[in-house]
Amino acid sequence: TNAPWHFENDAGELVGMDITMGRILAKGLFDDPAKVEFVMQDPAQRIPNVTTNKVDITIQFMTMTAQRSQLINFSRPYYVEGVALLTLPGAENKTFDKLLAAGSATRVSILQNVDAESSVHFALPEAQVMQIDTQANVLQALESKRADAAAVDLSTVRWLASRNPDKYFDAGKSWYSMLYGAALRQGDLDWLTFVNQTFTIAMFGHETALYDAAFKDYFGQEPPARHPGFPVI
Predict the structure, then answer these.
(1) Looking at the structure, do residues 169 and 92 belong to the same domain, yes or no?
(2) Tell me: the pLDDT tens digits for 8-63?
(3) I want to staple 82 with a disulfide (CB 3.0 to 4.6 A). Which of 61, 131, 154, 205 is the partner?
(4) In which region does residue 61 sit, left (phi positive, over 0), alpha (psi from -120 to 50) or beta (all else)?
(5) What is the distance between the alpha carbons of residues 57 and 40, in angstroms, rounded to a whole number?
(6) Are 18 and 42 in the same domain?
(7) Domain identity same for 124 and 164
């Protein structure tokens, strides 16, 4: 249920950017992106299911941290997440510059957490911060115009703004980079190396079709052009 990462489409098919990364691995292993079994799991099971061999790999919008790296191996990053601002397309202050210029008159909704105030004030130092209990209610505050902007994940902003341009607008500001990587059991260097190389080829090499199509579909953007020559990866 977490679009654009892993969710069911209208046909009941499992889709999303995480799902695509799993299919990229299947194509590398078996030359068939369909040869993968997806295991439904709660986010709290992402590390336990890897360490107990229930799954071979977890690809589930997992932020890479030094603490988690003590328990599992991370693949190379396959996405850089961040915090971004979602606004309404018809609002007077729909861009970041106008939200910033409005100062303390700007109201920003965000999911309640210990870092909510500091997160918003990093980008909008004078804004009023509205901490709200659920992500759905964070968006509802924006839609009902109780908030001028919603501070949510960059991927969420791009997904909603690209799919519903008449309803949502990308204010054009993102911050707090967070790396998403796949989790693997420690001790299997061959498996880790294969995953890293397969991801690298899919993102920067000669087999980028699956990654590029998913990036455009789920985030509404074309990946940057790759140019032969010096290896910038």
Answers:
(1) yes
(2) 999 999 999 999 999 999 999 999 999 999 999 999 999 999 999 999 999 999 99
(3) 154
(4) left
(5) 12
(6) yes
(7) yes
The whole-angstrom separation of Cα 108 and Cα 123 is 11
Same domain, 102 and 144: yes
Q: CB 15: neighbour CB atoms within 10 A?
A: 19
Q: Is 183 helix (H, G, I), strand (E, B) or coil?
A: strand
Choose among 186, 144, 151, 183: nearest CA to 167.
144
49-66 per-position pLDDT tens digit:
999 999 999 999 999 999
The CATH number covering residue 201 comes to 3.40.190.10
Q: Is this structure's pTM higher than 0.70?
A: yes
Outline where DSSP puts E strands in the chain: 7-8, 14-15, 73-74, 79-87, 107-111, 128-132, 149-153, 169-180, 183-184
Domain span at residue 112? 81-175
